[in-house]
Amino acid sequence: MSANPQHTPYHPRWYRASMPIFWWMRRWIHARFILRELTSIFVAGYALVYLLQLRALGLGPEAYARFLDLLRSPLSISLHGVSLVFVIYHSITWFNLAPRALALRIGDRRVPDKVIAGLNFVAWISISAALAWVTLKG
Amino acid sequence: MKTTIEPFWWSLFGAGGTLAALFIPITLIINGLAIPLGWLDAPAYENVLQLARHPLARTYLFLLISLSFYHWAHRFRFTLYDGLQLKHLNLLIAVICYGGATVGTIAAGYTLINL
């Protein structure tokens, strides 16, 4: 046995650069990536609020009126305001990435990225207008 | 196992991301801001109920809500892995995220069937 059993000239070690938890706050481009990923919390959060509104709708006129009162509270308005910024950020980043997920070809020419993203934005505006019309008419 | 189911989660993530991007902002503006703030008049209860009960509306609402949950599950899972360096909790995080989305989906189905 050697005098120093801990030490060998070629002691195997994994190389793992240790990363601080908030590594992504050091550079704006990384923070922007994390912000984009965090939009998913607001997407699901609003889906949940919408589901609760539908549940209140099913429970009857009184329950629905109570839910609408809740939506009028300053807390609700502030949360919806913040959520709106995030869900719009989700839409914009999503449509801008659409060309990467969907490479369309016409003949043997690739449809330019800007056209695909543009069509997505047009669909977004049209759907928003149509949905606003249906909801307000209903 | 993991490598075969990953594209399935990704397709739910993609479908949910697209539906959410197209439909959620306007829905949030109308229901969460414009009506509560009095910029628009709230449609009558009976009309909203009638509209929501239409089979097409129920299907649309179910897909929008459920797929938004799965969109979150997939994206949030990787945000926790990468952003917070939690790769060692792989299985636990996946179960919580996809499990949560599945619970939400069942709740949405139950609510919409009984509407």
Describe the structure.
The complex is a heterodimer of chains A (138) and B (115). Chain A has four helices and two strands. Chain A has a domain at 36-125: Up-down Bundle (3 helical TM bundles of succinate and fumarate reductases), CATH 1.20.1300. The model of chain A has no long low-confidence stretch (mean pLDDT 88). In chain A, a hairpin with a 2-residue loop joins strand 1 and strand 2 (109-110). In chain A, helix 1 crosses helix 3 and helix 3 packs antiparallel against helix 4. Chain A has helices at 28-59, 61-71, 74-101, 113-137; strands at 105-106, 109-110. Chain A has 138 residues and is an all-alpha fold. The longest helix of chain A has 32 residues, at 28-59. Chain A starts with 27 loop residues before the first helix and ends with a helix. With 115 residues, chain B is an all-alpha fold. Chain B has a single domain, classed as 3 helical TM bundles of succinate and fumarate reductases (Up-down Bundle). In chain B, 83% of the residues lie in helices and 0% in strands. Chain B is built from four helices and no strands. Chain B has helices at 2-34, 45-53, 55-83, 90-113. In chain B, helix 1 packs across helix 3 and helix 3 runs antiparallel to helix 4. The longest helix of chain B is centred in the first third of the chain and has 33 residues, at 2-34. Chain B is elongated and about 50 Å long. In chain B, 37% of the residues are buried. The model of chain B has no long low-confidence stretch (mean pLDDT 92). The chains are: A mainly alpha (138), B mainly alpha (115). At the A-B interface, helix 1, helix 2, helix 3 and helix 4 of A face helix 1, helix 2, helix 3 and helix 4 of B.
